Amino acid sequence: MGWPFLGETIGYLRPYSATTIGDFMQDHISRYGKIYKSNLFGEPTIVSADAGLNRYILQNEGRLFECSYPRSIGEILGKWSMLVQVGQMHRDMRMISLNFLSNARLRNQLLSEVEKHTLLVLGSWKEDSVVCAQDEAKKFTFNFMAEHIMSLQPGNPKTEQLKKEYITFMKGVVSAPLNFPGTAYRKALQSRSTILNFIEGKMEERLKEMNGNENDLLGWVLKNSNLSKEQILDLLLSLLFAGHETSSVAIALSIYFLQNCPGAVQQLTEEHLEISRAKKQSGETELNWDDYKKMEFTQCVIGETLRLGNVVRFLHRKAVKDVRYKGYDIPCGWKVLPVISAVHLDPSLFGRSHQFDPWRWQNKQGSPSGKEGSTGTSSTTKSSNNFMPFGGGPRLCAGSELAKLEMAIFIHYLVLNFHWQLAAPDQAFAYPYVDFPNGLPIKIQHRQINHDTRPHS
Q1: Is the N end or the C end of the chain the one with fewer CB atoms within 10 Å?
Q2: Side-by-side strand order, sheet with 441-446
Q3: How is residue 27 annotated by DSSP?
Q4: Binding of heme: at which residues (predicted)?
């Protein structure tokens, strides 16, 4: 169980390559099996790298287990944050998010906004230049979420200032909870206060205007919910955080994996050229939902990026009753960590689990290597019970469909318009949040194609 109070937390959180489960986890699984006990984050903890137990935990949310993030995360995100809420309040906030991210809204409004922000970022890329792909992905997702949540326009000084505050805020969310001057945690608490003041100012403007604008989440919540001011502030703060941080990491990971997989880039290019040519023939310029649905191999790339990269590596839960699972006793009150990444990287569930192989997600024998994993490519499809990049059960990520849409549209314009390669060595690390230490610098060149799909600013 490790040291008193600290337990094994330092070892568990030591950075490691994001396409592995790390030496700590590997060592513990080999010694104790896929389900073992430890002391993490100051509490006795059951760690699960077992696919069956992970599903069981997520499906029994609210009955046998409940969300239980460290207090430090609650202090930064706010006590009304959807991430830390449980029970009816979580259901109410989740319903607001789902209503605003409905399928109809994705089709009719958000797709064109995602396309606009993609073109804005890619249109600024210059021939033979080196860009920081991680920062560019964050710029894209932050600008989209800021407009989507509060109608903030990209490039506006206030939007840029808010973006800087959010970078400080993000670093504190995932840092050691040391509330001393100069620490990342203290700076994040200060940024939280600045961001909340900004959102509150926007709220007051809206309430004075009373113009019924429901085009952004702030307007929608003010008109359609009974949440208090404090609850709305924490909801918007956490959605802006969740909505841009995870999606941008996933996009950066796809850029990283694809530059090492020319076969996938070639197949993606063919898929998106076909869509682009059909658009040109019909005289249309903007992508629509039918175009998105044609991006079948793109969805395989997205699935494989999320499986191998594991943006969210583990979840925080707590047993609310004594639980018995397949001979294991989980005492009431103990912390439980379902480790999603350990399942996604388990070679007994996903053949060649440490290779980037988007063809594994096709419903036919499609891997370019001509080999199958131990369970066969056809069994590891999108509906696989073992694939949980967005969690599962009642707390399944409300923004999962939006995240996949953002990735697909970005990939569409990326492969049509650019060749890219790493400009300097870099790789994804888990801290446990996923990050590229050097920001993923890539050298880009415009792709010459036979008709104009060049992004424009």
Answers
A1: C
A2: 130-132, 441-446, 418-422
A3: H
A4: 397
- The answer to whether 303 and 404 are in contact (CB under 8 A) is no
pTM for this model (two decimals): 0.90
- Rounded Cα–Cα distance for residues 262 and 82 (Å): 40
**Residues present in the chain in total:** 457
Angle of CA points 105, 107, 112, to nearest 5° = 95
- DSSP E strand stretches across 359-456: 418-422, 429-430, 434-435, 441-446
| CB 292, CB 405: distance < 8 Å | yes
Amino acid letter for position 421? Q
Residue 53 phi/psi, 5-degree rounding, is: -65, -40
Decide: helix, strand or coil at residue 5: coil
Q: Which of 10, 47, 32, 68 is nearest to 343 (CA)?
A: 47
CA distance 368 to 265: 13
As a whole number, mean pLDDT of residues 240-265 equals 93
Residues 256-305 pLDDT 10s: 999 999 999 999 999 999 999 999 999 988 999 999 999 999 999 999 99
Judge whether 397 is annotated as a binding position.
Answer: yes
The Cα–Cα gap between 192 and 291 comes to 39
Of 331, 236, 254, 354, nearest to 300 (Cα)? 254
Q: Are 404 and 433 in contact (CB under 8 A)?
A: no
Tokens of 92: 């109410």
CA 334/CA 265 separation, integer angstroms: 46
- Provide the token pair at 251: 């996009």
Answer whether 58's CB lies under 8 Å from 388's CB: yes
Which structure tokens are listed for 245?
């941080």
27 vs 21: CA distance, rounded Å? 10
